[in-house]
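Re: your question from the hallway

Yes, I did run it. Sequences:
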Amino acid sequence: MIQLLALYKETYILLLLAAVMLPLIGLHLAPRRESVKSLMLTQVAVFGVLMGILIEHQLSWVSGKVWPLIIGLIFTFTGAGLMQNKLKQVGESYYLVFFIFYMAASSWLLSAFPGLEAHQSQAFFGDIVTIYGVELWVTVATFALSLIVYLLNFKSFLKESFEMEVFGLSHSESGHKLSFKILTLVVITTSIYTLGMLFTLGLLFIGPTLLGPTSKSFKSFLVFLTFGSIICVLGGFSLALSFQDMTSVPTVIIILTLYHAVPSFWQLTRKWLA
Amino acid sequence: MPNDNEVPLFSLKDFKLKTPQGKLLKDGVSFEVWPGDVVYLKGENGKGKTTLAKEIFSQLKKQKVNVEFLPQLSSLNSSLPFTLAEVVALSEAQLKELPSQLISLEILQRPWNHASGGERKKALLVRSLLKKPDILILDEPFNHLDAETIIEIQSLIWRLVATHELKAIVLASHQEIGASPEFGAINLKEVRL
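Structure:
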């Protein structure tokens, strides 16, 4: 086991950063009314990453493992830009339409190019064990830089999110900083590229959604969210390493959900007993 | 009354009040804001009170006046589990200068989502006041409050102007408000929309 841990020490660094960064981004999405939009953008990123892999496979003059990330980023930034400019006044259901469209487009891509099938499974469900080399270090560098930018703007991001929710302010009225939007798109796309859609969505939404209503203060929420995510992600991955038949990402997500559901379950039990 | 050589804090003359989409709501809106004034933008929903309050805020900002705008609450609850103290601390101002006569430290420890409407309004008011503005613009400050709390918040607002903690207040509300005789120093000016 110790040997396995030593073998995957770079992966642990990546998972540590992902476990911190993704929930910190995720806690802003509900107050900014961007949960459904983010769901759509993860699907756009999956499609973009698959397109990048296809380009890398088909064109001999294109090489390098970062192409799927670059194409993924082009797709998510374009998708987010189009949504911002064209769909300002529409309801969230429109994002679901685009989510469905990109899901169908990804499936169509696979039927046309069956060689992508293994990559599709990776893009949807991820496989932490197989992450290595350039892919791993590009993601570590991106998450580390994003974390620095996030922490430098922590208070202003929080203020914007709170004001957008309780005052119903639009992005421009709240003095919405472009840096949060860029940060979100970069982190989500990079996470999809390396860790897959299930891991990304799970870390973005499970902790903030389940812990929020049971926390007594934002400070305690932040402590439980961050440390809980780290323990669950590192613990889940270690567990998957220990048992060969256990798949890594679903194990992490199941542990993460159970951990964050404990306070809600405890509150319900106390109410029921009282 | 002001002297001839004095200038108002803000003035609007023959202003065409339009919606953000350009529809004319009212023509010829004119008023001045002097120290000690509480300007009451009065009108039914949809008459342009919020639009006018935002326009005043935007013009004052351009004139580099130290002004704060407290928008109306669109959602009572927040997905972020803040306490009232944490909401106040989102202000860039120093918490050490908390005006304790407005809200007690004990109340500030309550979670935002479990606090009463009045407590939330007071916390937001304190958050704005910590920035020490000269003029405070309040949009529908009495929404979601019971009659008793409305009177309490009104008294707080009048006191801020009467004690010169604020030079003036612009207040947009569809509810009836009246000057309180105990704060004779303030001048309640009604602008009907």
